[in-house]
Amino acid sequence: MVLAAGLGTRLRPITYEMPKPMVPVLNRPVMEHIVRLLARHGFTETIANLHWFPRLIEGHFGDGSGFGVELSYSPEEQLLGTSGGVRNAAGFLGDSFLVISGDALTDIDLGAMRAFHESHDGIATLATKRVADTTQFGVAITGSDGRIQGFQEKPEPAEALSDLANCGIYMFRSEIFDFFPAPGSSKAAGEGDPPGFADWAMDVFPALLESDVPFYSHEIDAYWNDIGNLEELRQGNLDALSGAVEVEREGEVVDGFRSGTPAGDEGSLAGPVLLGPGCEIGEDVRIDGPAVIGDGARVGDGCRLREVIALPGAEIAAGSVLIGAIAAKRG
């Protein structure tokens, strides 16, 4: 199951116009990178929950056949929470299943995670990764055997009992649904939330700990970026361009120095710069990479850009000087 229903509030104003899973990394929606990852590892029967701009996701992916999967959808008229949306799709999910965020960037080895999940008798496996700054993540506290003993939510370094961030990538056995809160009794639900609302961190995982049910951490060293804010989106694009994460790209990479076309008269591109299909670069433009110019983006005459991410359709006015910026299409 691909989680794709969130509002992406920390990526505003971009997510005023699109759902977070459709935000581009190397000119492809970040969810497309996740779906292609699933296909590569044999997770071809897939469902995605939808809420915010659902038609944009359905319009891009269709039935999933163009991306190597069979994709169906679980719409949520009201958001059901991080685990409530999974319970809502329980009829689709089998005896053992994967849940992965559709709005994070990763090249995790899902085959290795599946092998670990099948090697123990726990009800769940959580992908975790060591992080330098625990204040940005929920962290898992584990025993020497990897069994999860507790959690901390964004602890200060001096108080952190672990540096293993919860990546939001889970493998479950179907018995997990026995530990969901009864409808209407979620500890995380607020006023106006539907009865089926439920949350992993507030409801399900505490129930496992209270019942002494074993579940485990699978530590990864793969790339993982939850694209939690604009800076992480920018960094994710630059990391993907540099090859730090294995994803497919859309467009032509100019690597090194190049003058003239397509940068116009007396312009130059110092790579790596990814030029998306149909982008237009004006005259006397200087772009210093790493940088991404999105599909159909327009860079006006005389611009000076350094480490800039221009999203598809963006228009950068003539004479602009941008450093470390994200440029998006005006609504």
Number of domains: 2
Task: Specify Rg, calculated over alpha carbons.
Answer: 21 Å
From the helix content, strand content and strand pairing, which structural class follows?
alpha/beta
Any idea what the shape is?
Answer: globular
Reported for the largest beta sheet, the result is:
7 strands, mixed
Assigned CATH architecture of the largest domain: Alpha-Beta Complex
Helix content: 10-25%
Unreliable runs: none
Please, what is the average pLDDT?
A: 89
How far apart the termini lie comes to 31 Å
The level-1 CATH class of the largest domain: Alpha Beta
Q: How are strands sequenced across the largest beta sheet?
A: 5-4-1-6-11-8-12
Tally of strands: 26
Give the oligomeric state: single chain
Overview of this protein structure:
This protein has about 325 residues and is of the alpha/beta class. It has two domains: about 1-240, Spore Coat Polysaccharide Biosynthesis Protein SpsA, Chain A; about 250-325, 3 Solenoid (UDP N-Acetylglucosamine Acyltransferase, domain 1). About 20% of the residues lie in helices and about 30% in strands. The chain is built from six helices and 26 strands. It has helices at about 30-40, 55-60, 85-90, 110-120, 200-210, 230-240; strands at about 1-5, 25, 30, 45-50, 70-75, 95-100, 105, 125-130, 140, 150-155, 165-175, 215-220, 225, 250-255, 255-260, 270, 275, 280, 285-290, 290-295, 300, 305, 310, 315, 320-325, 325. The strands form seven sheets. It has a seven-stranded mixed sheet. Strands 14-17-20-23-26 form a five-stranded mixed sheet. The relative contact order is 0.13. The model has no long low-confidence stretch (mean pLDDT about 90).
